[in-house]
Amino acid sequence: MRSMSQLGNDLYTGKTSFPFVGRRNLWFIIAAVLVIGSVLVPFFRPVQFSIEFTGGSQFTVSGVSSPDQDVATEAVHSVVPDAATKVTTIGQDTIRVQTDQMTANETRQVSGALAEAYEVPQSEVTSSFIGPSWGADVTRTSLWGLVIFLVLTFVILALYFRTWKMSAAAIIGLIDVLIITVGVYALFGFEISPAAIIGFLTILSYALYDTTVVFDKIRENTSEDGEVSGRTFGESVNLAVNQTLVRSINTTVVAVLPTGAILFIGAFALGAETLTDISLSIFVGTIVAAYSTIFVAAPLYSLLRENEPGIKARDERVLVVRERAGAPA
C-alpha cells in the first residue's frame, strides 16, 4: 500500500491521475443536485434566524445554581403561554433566554418569574430588546458585505489571472459553497446568527484561497500546453488538480480538526454553546469548499476555455501528433 508521500509524488508526476475533468459531467450533476436540494430545503424546513435578525426580547440570568433550561422555558410560559423561547447555557452559571417581542409589562413579569424559578435576586436578571428595524439593518449589512466580497473577488482574480473565465469559475464555486452550507444549516435546524455570517465569510475566504492555489497551478500547466507538453488543455487542468490534491486534503484536515474540536468538544460536550454558530459554519463550509474547488471550479474553468478557437486548434494538433505516434488519444 502506497504512503501518502508516494501517492502525492505519483499524482504530481501524472503516474496516478483521478479524472476530475474527464468526468466533469458527473461532478456537475452531483453539484446541481446538492445546490437544488439546498435551495428546496427551506421550503420544507425554514431557515432559523437568530434574534439579531428577527427581533425580540432577551433575558440573561446570572448566578444560577442549576442551569436547567426547562426551568427557563416553564417560567416564560407561566407569563406568556404561547411565547417561542430559545434557551442557551453560557458557562457554568448563566442562562440566556430569547423570546418573541414582549411588552414592557410582560418583560417585567418574565424577569420576576425567571428570578423566582432560579432562586436568584431580581438584580441577577437583565433584559434587553432588539427591534425588527435593527434586525433588518443587520440583514442588509450582511447582504451588502457578501455582494462586495464577491465583486471584489471577481475583479481581483480577473486582474491576477488575466482572464474573466477563471474569475467566473471561482465565483460560481464560492456561490456553490455558500448555498450548500446554508442548506445544511436549514436541514439540521441550525440557527443563522451574526456569528454564523462571520463564519460564512471566513469559509468563503478559505475557499477563495484554496481555489487560487489550484488555479495558479492550472495557469502554470496550461502555459506550456500544446506540442511542447504533449497535453491538451483539459489534461493540463486535470494534472494541476491532481498535483495540488494532497495539499488540498492536508489543508482541509488541518482546518477541520481545530474547528471540529471547538464544535464537538467545546460546544456539544462541554456546553459552550456560544461557540456553536461560528465553529459550525466554518466546519461545514471548509469541507464543502474543498469539494467545490476540486469538483466544480476547476472542471468548470476547463469547460469555459476548451472551446476557444486557439485552444481548440492546439488541442487538435496535440491529438493528431499523439495519433501519429501511436499513443492513446
What does this structure look like?
With 329 residues, the protein is an alpha+beta fold. It has 12 helices and 6 strands. It has helices spanning 4-13, 24-44, 51-54, 69-79, 104-118, 132-161, 164-187, 194-222, 233-243, 245-269, 276-306, 309-324; strands at 48-49, 56-62, 85-90, 94-99, 125-130, 191-192. The chain has a 4-stranded antiparallel beta sheet. It has a two-stranded parallel ribbon with strand order 1-6. The longest helix is centred in the C-terminal third of the chain and has 31 residues, at 276-306. The model has no long low-confidence stretch (mean pLDDT 82).
Helices and strands, with pairings:
Blueprint: H1 4-13, H2 24-44, E1 48-49, H3 51-54, E2 56-62, H4 69-79, E3 85-90, E4 94-99, H5 104-118, E5 125-130, H6 132-161, H7 164-187, E6 191-192, H8 194-222, H9 233-243, H10 245-269, H11 276-306, H12 309-324
Parallel strand pairs: 1-6
Antiparallel strand pairs: 2-4, 2-5, 3-4
Parts with pLDDT < 50 across at least 5 consecutive residues? none
Helix content: 55-70%
The proportion of strand residues reads 5-15%
Element-by-element helix/strand order = HHEHEHEEHEHHEHHHHH
Quote the distance from N terminus to C terminus: 30 Å
Spatial strand order of the main sheet:
3-4-2-5
Tell me about the largest β-sheet.
4 strands, antiparallel
Tally of alpha and pi helices: 12
What oligomeric state do the depicted chains represent? Answer: single chain
Shape: elongated
Integer average pLDDT? 82
